Amino acid sequence: MSATALLLTVGAGAGQATAAPSRAGADSGAPAAVAAVDLERYLGSWYQVAALPQLFELQCARNVKATYTRTAAGTVGVRNTCTTWLNTTSSVTGDARPLDATNARLNVSFLGLGGTYLHTDRANYIVTGLDPDYRWAVVTDSDRRSGFVLSRTPSLTSGQRSAVLSAIRSAGLDPCRFRVTRQDDGAAATGSLC
């Protein structure tokens, strides 16, 4: 999973309401974040079902997953795992710090020194869409260089897929640039999300 992998999406699909973006991000030209994220509901395991290709994921053949936990410091612990091309498990741990009270704009760091993660004020994890039941999310960064579709299950239903595509477009991203992520219990092949 990516360093910027907290994905929450905005969109409407299959008769479900979704959280709408509240405002443009604090960074100039940044995508709008959802109005609020309940971090307690966001915690747990998420499957990456699609993403914009990233260099740090080249080693991942399939089964990209993120697990979020509450830390003693009140931040969000991040553990990203995947199955590599050599059929081994690769993992990285990090820390996500909310940048405002909405919890929809975060700085995720994988750079730790002496048990402390180094953070900046840059939103590199913006939840731009979120299913009302927290079943899927779309995440990007201030520059829209990364994009992730996260789901509580290894694959999306057709209704969820429609809502996700709408959320990606609402964030100013091209869904055809997103590549489907292989999951053992989900998508068997990769290709464009659109």
Automatic annotation (TrEMBL):
> What Pfam families does this protein map onto?
Lipocalin_2
Per the record, the GO terms for biological process are: response to stress
Which segments constitute the Lipocalin/cytosolic fatty-acid binding domain? 37-183
Q: Which domain of life is it from?
A: Bacteria
Question: Which keywords accompany this UniProt record?
Answer: Signal
Question: Which Gene3D superfamilies does its entry note?
Answer: 2.40.128.20
Q: Which residue ranges traverse the bilayer?
A: none
Kindly indicate where the leader peptide sits in this chain.
1-19
Q: Does the keyword Signal apply?
A: yes
PANTHER family registered for this protein in UniProt: APOLIPOPROTEIN D
Which protein family is named in the record? Belongs to the calycin superfamily. Lipocalin family.
Protein's recorded name: Lipocalin/cytosolic fatty-acid binding domain-containing protein
Species for this entry:
Streptomyces bungoensis
